[in-house]
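Instructor's aside before we start: the two examples that follow are unrelated to each other. I chose them only because their records fit on one page, so don't look for a connection. First example below.
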Amino acid sequence: MSDLFKNYIDGLWQHAAGGETFTDINPAINSDEIGKFPNSGVEDVDDAVRAARKAFQTWSRRPAPERGDILKRIGDLLTERKSEIAFQMTREMGKPFFETKGDVQEAIDTAYYAASETRRLFGHTVPSELPSKFNMTIRRPIGVCAIISAFNFPVAVPTWKMFPALACGNTVVFKPSSSVPYSAALLVKVFEDAGLPAGVVNLVQGRGSMGQSLVEHPDVNVVSFTGSTEVGSKIGEVCGRMHKRVSLEMGGKNPVIVMADGDLELAVEGIIWGAFGTTGQRCTATSRLIVHEDVHDELVGMLVTTAGKLKLGYGNEDDTQVGPVLNKSAFDTIDKYVQIGKQEGAKLATGGNRASGPGLDDGFFFEPTIFTDVTPDMRIAKEEIFGPVLSVLKISSYEEAIEVANNIDYGLSSSIYTNDVATAFRAMHDIEAGITYVNGPTIGAEAHMPFGGMKATGNGHREGGWEVFDFYTETKTIYIDYSGKLQKAQIDNVAD
């Protein structure tokens, strides 16, 4: 009999109002049923938003450093429970234990960073154009924030969003991916145990249109979404119509450029980690390799050899390097793109099949896959696959590399391997992406740095770092006139 889990609304763990549930399974061992979770509906969303709206009245008035103290306690508890949470995350979504520990550590770093920022929610003071008058700005929280996150970073990504929102005085309704409900429940239990007041964070689990109900709710003021470009575009339309502030973190088709003077051994390490870490299920995954013709064959040979040695398996086993993909739907999508690549004329250098063998037959395992002879117009070079598939494109110059890198709808992360400082600095400016790494892979965000992209990747906002605190606050301008008389700004300031 599976464990039965609940939503968390207004400080209470409770079943969905309609009584419906869905089942969560281990993608590496499909026979391992993790539990049943509430499949929430409109009534549950209403209850959660109502609780968040009520809690906003007191939470927003609490001194910001006091809010920071609670965030620090959350970071302390995450530190204590790091291995326990990471183990269950691996069981639930598949990536190896060493990766999920890093996922939790990112949340810990973000908790401490956000806690410290509660003492630096700066405004500005500026001179007035009139005498005996003082001008300043302050930051004000906005209200109820809907947090909608993807499956691949079940703890890191939601906390990127929630911790800054809470630090700024907002309250939250959290709708995690239905593929990682247990990780979300473990995270919210930490919030509860840290003493976060009732209603400040509410967890509503579910599949289907429940997320749409949350986005469209009239009492939700802010929406922060991580997921597909298709869904994000629809959310953006709704928020535009309803005048909600919205941050969209969507797809990527991230390039690594390797120039002829690049360190090939270093590049191989980075490309393998970037392409096959998290089984390629990252918005920042290295999905395109743009390599100079002078080193193309040597580099591809090194990559094929290294990829063929990767150990696939259940991520909670010590020697596992690559876990399963999320579910059958993800597996089928990856397989479809492999067939498309073949049909388009790309050459399959390694992989391309379901992985089988001891410990693999009861899960959704796909071989690390590398295509060569890929051209920029092929679908496997343009569309996000979200799996362990790397497309290799050959170029003959830096200018061609930049043209190929930028000839894409997305603009999240990017990388260049070169030992020429001038080339590196040119690439920092020339590549159309929100993130550029020099001599490193396309993955590996740091909590105190802005994260996000351009083009179809996002709508201009950034998560992480100092910029996210601007997203979760309104700027209020204040004028204090102590002249004792009516001053009419420009009318009094400029003589005819």
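Example two begins here.
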Amino acid sequence: MQNQEQIDSRTETLISEFKHYFGNAPTHVAIGPGRVNLIGEHTDYNDGFVLPVAIKRDVRVVLRARPDKTVRIYSLEYDAWGEFQLDSFQRDPNLLWINYLMGVAWVLQEAGIELTGMDVLISGNVPRASGLSSSAALEVASAKAFLVAARQDDALTGPMLAKAAQRAENEFVGVNCGIMDQFISVLGAEDHALFIDCRSLHYDLTPVPVEASIVIGNTKASRSLAGSAYNERRSQCEQGVALLKAALPEITALRDVSSPQLEAHRGLLPPLIYRRCRHVVSENERVLQTVAALKANDLNQVGRLMAASHASLRDDYEVSSPALDAMVEAMSSASGCYGARLTGAGFGGCAVALAQPGAEQAIADAVFESYPKVTNIWPEVYTSQASDGARVIVL
């Protein structure tokens, strides 16, 4: 739990809004941060490695427990009310955001945790549809809220809570996401990235040196292709594994293949499938190299690895876009930028850059100067340090 001293002006505003809409005072605020992935893209569903950080943009769930099974919700950004009963879950096709809360409640109760109703106000400043994982932030904040309202704060470990939130998105909302987004939202830590082995779910906090600042460029470009391309890439990876098994019968995922092995057996693969596999195999290796470089405080090497990751995502995995390429090029051109790459599924959304402290404005200026000329889109630029993961403030 956190104490009252850490209530900021945004939370104070949300407390006032809660009183306005519900007529009484809330008791807790649950916070789930968004995330940006430093490196390790499209590796999670291949049992591979990822290196995300939680960011200082989050979803906040302001709550007061009720004595019944009713969950009443007001969404500040959507200016909309929603309501459901904890003994009756039915997806709402019109109010899509409520399905995330409903799915979390369903999973927690499936796990044997008896929940109570709540009055809830939700608000987030994680940009939606940007690849910064606003959905996982909402799921995780909702899970923390349900648990604290039911006085079951310690019923789940961090990894268990992340898996519950992922299950809600997979099985209730119907989005086949990996575990990374929920894991980092729960387990992030100030000034650290989180190295995650997506097969074993082993994780380690990796310090981000104080000489590094994170800059995020939102292309504001449509990500309409991301869903269909995600499923297609996933299928192509599975096809690559099936074909490589002829020479490497022990493998179960691309995680198990090294670059020398892939090169030795590339003749088994059609050229397109080979390129898809080459991205995943090399990206896993880049994640491990990035962790080592961060521990050695070699930020120039981290920057080179980020640039190589973007080139691989652009050329081998083909999930970049003209907007993302223009964003990465603009960020990389600025003095003080170690390196930049697309982050998230691709085809739009955001790019991430690692920068020298003090260079953030130069990177933003470079983006605002060149990116709109290429795309006719006005972007957004955010800076963030690595943030703590999910938490609850007692009011």
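DSSP finds eleven helices and twelve strands in the chain.
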